[in-house]
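Sequence in, structure out. Go.
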Amino acid sequence: MKKELYSLGTSNRSLWEFIIILKGFHIQRAVDVRRFPTSKKFLHFQRDNLAQALEREGIEYLYMGGSLGGYRKGGYQKYMQTEEFKWALNFLKRLVEEKRSCIFCCERLYFRCHRRFITQALSGEFKIIHIIELNRVREG
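Output:
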């Protein structure tokens, strides 16, 4: 049976909604794949604030936006061919094998952002579950 990799978008959620969703799916490690982990409108999603809040709730926070984040010159699919991306993807695989993990960025819908490329690259090895809402997911 394949291990599961979860995907989630912060969007305009409250901090508590985000945490409740993670806890609802028993996520142990949240992997931030935002290239720019800041938010002027949602201060709770700024990198340091979010890391502290998740750690308080017993969820490990790991930033991988430097190597897996979007907004790449030439497009994300071109970036996926680089050694940096391949190394980061292999590292992410090991993380998913260790703990129940969820990658996340700002976009609520995975098919509108680079999470779709990351999860497609891993779909042969893991069961992919895109969380839309606490009671709404899409597999694949």
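Check: The chain has a mean pLDDT of 97. The radius of gyration is 14 Å.
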